[in-house]
Amino acid sequence: MSGPDDRGAPLIVMRDVFKIYGSGESEVRALDGVDLTIANGDFVAVMGPSGSGKSTCMNLLGCLDRPTSGSYYFRGVDLANTTLDQLALIRRHYLGFVFQGFNLLARTTALENVELPLVYRGLPTAERRTLAAKALADVGLQGRELHTPAELSGGQQQRVAIARAMVTAPSLLLADEPTGNLDSARKLEIMHLLRALNRDRGITIIVVTHESDVAQFASRTVTFRDGRIEKDERGAAA
Amino acid sequence: MFASTLVMAFREIRRNMMRSVLTTLGIVIGVGAVIMLVTLGQGATDRVTADVAKMGVNMLTVVPGAERRGGASVGASSLTLDDARAILAQIPSVATVAPSSGRGMLVVYANQNWSSTLTGATNDYFTVRDLKIGTGRIFNEVESQGGTPACILGPTVQRQLFGQQDPIDATVRVGKIACRVIGTTQPKGQNTFGMDQDDFVLIPLATFQRRILGSHDVGAISLSATSDAAIPKVKEQLGLLMRERRKLPYGAPDDFSVRDMKEISETLSSVTGALTALLGAVAAVSLVVGGIGIMNIMLVSVTERTREIGIRLAIGARAHEVLLQFLVEAVMLSLFGGVIGMVLGLGGSYAAGRALKFPFRVMPEIVVIAFAFSFVVGVAFGFFPARRAARMNPIDALRHE
Question: What is the predicted ipTM?
Answer without folding.
Answer: 0.89
